[in-house]
Amino acid sequence: MADLFADFAPPPPETPTGGPLADRLRPTTLAEVVGQDHLTGADGAIGRMVAAGKLSSMILWGPPGTGKTTIARLLADAVGLRYSQISAVFSGVADLKKVFAEARDHGRIGKRTLLFVDEIHRFNRAQQDGFLPYVEDGTVTLVGATTENPSFELNAALLSRAQVLILHRLDAAALNELLIRAEATEERPLPLTDAARAALVASADGDGRFLLNQAETLFSIQLPEPLDPAGLSALLQRRVAVYDKDREGHYNLISALHKSLRGSDPQAALYYMARMLTAGEEPLYVLRRLTRFASEDIGLADPQALVQCLAAKDAYDFLGSPEGELAIVQACLYLATAPKSNAAYKAQKAAFASARETGSLMPPQSILNAPTRLMKDIGYGKDYAYDHDHQDGFSGANYWPEEMTPKRFYEPTGRGFEQRIAERMAWWDERRQS
Fold it and tell me: What is the rounded average pLDDT of the residues 401-415?
């Protein structure tokens, strides 16, 4: 029974002065959490729950180093719940049973449990189902953390019982606030020039933990004078974007590159990409942005655009720098000179909005697969029109749920290959109407 009263024991000693900087700077209240005001603020989902004193189960979805574990700990304190934590990486069924048994025991003496599950997406489907009865009966309030898209990695049943809250990458202002707190704790400034400080913030890529670990390294050494961006890069053995005298940084340059590509200006696009690469930007980051552009701003106007970007990525993986950077240049020029269309991007947004609005409408029975006798008997697959058996390989059948009128999400432009797609779709529409 001694275990039942563990929560009423004296609190553990504070982190020693010589502990990791990230631990020493861990927030003690939700108000101290940086970069997630859309959740923790008074009007945010978490802020409202805490104000009401009632916490629902939730999934915290966000990149590493954005405060998921910290928020979970602070939530337990804020609403007076016992805090219990497990990691899906190191835990199995036996660990889950033990955690749930302990939560039930504490519940009997009036102490409810907040169960924080780190990397919850690592649990398989059966293990995720194991959470359901304990969440439903209130044995635990589940707070799961994941860096992966919950829609793909978590069971629908579990998602229906938890609110998905999205944490943002920490922006420059939030990262700078962490550095200010670090300097206050160490009682001295970081040994960096203003340009190197901006470069350090950019190199963190929104990860607060990484930034503080880098800052701790800088505090641990004695330097005769502040480091500039080149000196910082050499010391940390990490490519750090260099900022020129106008302090145009990482996000300004990638925005300029993206918009120059969209505006079909290959010269300007090449210039901004060269600015990033010669400053020490990670080539794979540039390739990720080019690949996104290929789908967002070109799409089916030139389907080869995406192929070019992926080929450039493979070429860079194979050759490395500097030889592989020519393949990135080639992809950049291809994108800038390709016909542009955001029809696929607009179609995605419209289709996703419609999917959220219509919930879980069933497709027509005629197009449902019928792998069992029962499913065949109740009409699954009945009267399916096999398009290849029809003239021109087109049946004109209706594939939409019966409760839903057909929608039109994708509207191809008349540019590039989409001109041919538009003609094909018009021909299909004419056949459907006739």
Answer: 90
Helix, strand, coil percentages in the chain from 3-state DSSP, rounded to 5: 55, 5, 40
**Concatenated DSSP letters for 123-167?**
S-HHHHHTTHHHHHTTSEEEEEEESS-HHHHS-HHHHTTSEEEEP
DSSP string, 353-416: HHHHHHTTPPPPGGGS---SHHHHHTTTTTT---GGGSGGG------S-TTS---------SST
* 201, two tokens: 């913030």
Please state the length of the chain.
434
Residue with tokens 């390709």: 338
The answer to whether the Cα torsion of 356, 361, 367, 372 is positive or negative is: positive
Angle between helices 325-337 and 250-262 (to 10 degrees): 50
At 121, list the tokens: 């997406």
**Exposure of 27 by Cβ count < 10 A (0-12 exposed, 13-18 middle, 19+ buried)?**
middle
Angstrom CA distances, 400 to 310, 340, 353, stand at 34, 30, 16
**Rounded CA separation 62/76 (Å):** 20
Buried b (16+ CB within 10 A) or exposed e, 315-330: bbeeeeeeebbebbee
Contact 337, 297 (CB under 8 A): no
Task: Tell which residue, 230, 206, 247, has the closest CA to residue 35.
Answer: 206
Cα separation, 327 vs 310, whole angstroms: 10
**Quick check: bond before 363 cis, omega within 30?**
no
Tokens of 57: 């189960």
Q: What is the pLDDT of residues 298-356, one digit of tens each?
A: 999 999 999 999 999 999 999 988 899 999 999 999 999 999 999 999 999 999 999 88
Mean pLDDT of the chain: 87
Which string of DSSP letters, residue by residue, matches 272-286? Answer: HHHHHHHTT--HHHH
Categorize the per-residue pLDDT at 248 as very low, low, confident or very high, splitting at 50, 70 and 90: very low
**Most distant CA pair in the chain: distance in Å?**
83
For the beta carbon of residue 366, count every other beta carbon within 10 angstroms. 15
Amino acid at 180: I
Instruction: Give the residue with greater pLDDT, 8 vs 92.
Output: 92
Phi, psi angle pair for 166, to nearest 5° = -100, 125
